[in-house]
Amino acid sequence: MSRTYAQRAKNFPQNEVARMLLKIIEQKRTNLCVAIDLTKKRQVLEVIEKVGPYVCLIKEERTNSKDSSGSIKGKLRFSKAKTHIDIIEDFDQGLIDELRILQERFNFLIFEDRKFADIGNTVKLQYSSGIYKIAEWAHITNAHPIPGDGIIKGLKEVGKPLGRSLLILSEMSSAGSLATGSYTEAAIEMARRHRDFVIGFVAGRKLTGNNYDSKNQADNDVIDNDDFIVMSPGVGLSDAGDKLGQQYRSPRDVVLKSGSDVIIVGRGIYGEGRDIIEEAKRYQESGWNAYLERLELQSNK
Ligand code: 6AU
Hints:
Blueprint lengths: L4 H4 L7 H13 L3 E5 L4 H22 L17 E4 L9 H14 L2 E8 L3 H9 L5 H4 L2 E4 L5 H11 L5 E5 L11 H12 L5 E5 L14 H4 L8 E4 L18 H7 L4 E4 L1 H4 L5 H24 L2
Parallel strand pairs: 1-2, 1-8, 2-3, 3-4, 4-5, 5-6, 6-7, 7-8
Helix pairs in contact: 3-4, 5-7, 10-12
Bound molecules: 6-acetyluridine 5'-phosphate.
Keywords: Decarboxylase, Lyase, Pyrimidine biosynthesis
Catalytic activity: orotidine 5'-phosphate + H(+) = UMP + CO2
Protein name: Orotidine 5'-phosphate decarboxylase
């Protein structure tokens, strides 16, 4: 748990997406994933654009350039955009093309939160075909473990040749979730059986891995075969929840106390009346500071 994101890249020799993600997180100093649950193409792109200028300015900052007011702009705000492609009313290939352009410009990965939940043969078709062709453009997607190993095998047949990766939903942030106890344990076991495709979990806390903090560099060079990237939704700084069962915790709680790696934030950033740029900055700082605090705590042990 004490290892930096960059050091952990070696724990994912089979998953380029995991290594890319850890590298982006470290380079841009952000563990924030923005969840874009909006129904119009334009809205989706506007949210990305609003946060995007900070990311662009990081490139300028790297070369030490300044904006017109003479001040160096702040660091990037997100490393990963999370989509729900099937809620977009005016979806077309143009959206995917624009997403790709923004992704290259700002250097983030795309996570399609599809929550697959069917038998292997069906999810294979849902992942590769239909209108959305998710596997063609999403670096990461997710699946419920409820159907058993077949769901991972089916998705893997499509995604692995394309260099994609999968997260398993082993816990949920909503009140009354059934994904607890032995269900969560079984989900972890399932992920362990498919390390060549599964890079982590959607969960509220760290679930696996060696938590040791060795002072011996040789120990730290050993690959931790049980390391998974944990991404936590249900993160909010201003609200305790919504009217439909969502429950929020702070980035500090999620990253420092629960050892999660990525905070997933949606309405906390673009909800009504919010200043998207300011909120993205607030969550990025909060998530990153919690991570630094975690590293500090571990190294003092
Ligand atoms: O910050 P919010 O509440 O506006 O959005 C949270 C996002 C939504 C949910 O579909 C998603 O996180 N989510 C997930 C994911 C990421 O799989 C799992 C879960 O247990 N809870 C949850 O909110 O896009």
